[in-house]
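The instructor's notes for this session suggest beginning with a concrete chain rather than abstract definitions. Hand out the sequence below and ask the class to guess, before any prediction is shown, which regions might be ordered.
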Amino acid sequence: MDLVGACRTFVAVSDHGGFTGGAAAAGVSQPVASRRVAALEDHLGEPLFERSVRRAVLTPFGREMLPYARRLVEDADGLLYEAAAARRRPWRLAVPETCTTGGLARLVARARDLGMNLDPRPERPARRAELLLAGRVRAALLAVPEHEAVWAVPLGLATAQDPGVRRIHLETLRLGRTTRGPARRVWLQPEDDVPHLRDPLTRLRDALGLRPGQLAVAADLTAAAAEVLAVGDLLLCSAPEADRLGLHWRPLGETTPVRGCLLGVAADSGPEPPLSRLGAEIGRCLGVPGAEPEAVVAARGGEGRG
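After discussion, reveal the predicted structure:
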């Protein structure tokens, strides 16, 4: 038996003094209202209304039960209201600044199809972890090494001119004794200024005999791309990023850096949203090549990572 529906009808019939008005107020037909009240009487074991009069007159038992039924209906209505409010409440998700506007728009639209009001906030890696730990976002795409990642984006080097080779080797940037002109630099975006990407490249730079300044971190993607276009430097980025910038992308010859991400959800964020069904859209935002994996909520509690 639908106890809440039966109590709602019982209260409505009592408040309107009859089954006709009560049924209309409860949004059901009069026969349905009669069956609901009869079922509630059977369930409670006593009649709620006098059957010997034309109007809906409460029995002593009905008068005693009415306040409890009213409270149950009010609590149910409060639950439904809070549930609707929770669905409308934005799910703030900290995302990498490398996500495109179009990718984020598709992610928000897909989330809306699933009844989720997603509010993506582009932030840098350390900031995303901080916001999650502080509870200022309910979820975040955290930068992690490849072996921890749910989404992995291979990185290479982009140049303004076609390099004329299938791969770009960093050793070709080494200055010789007779080399003239400034040393070409490799620019990292803030998204890739994390230990698991920066440190291996730094060790490779040193092993190949490049100068310290030949590996640099840009203030933002615009500044890095400007250096590539103006002086012939190189940009560490994904193939889709290079394409959007009109640059020529090639894999590295010595190594394959990977920009890894996983989804972290705050421990106190409440019931999990349908984020597990947004894996493909998240992958597209991040620039994952080929078939994107389904998202797995792989971190809880907001532990920050490099």
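Then share the key points. The longest strand covers residues 258-265. The first helix runs from residue 3 to 16.
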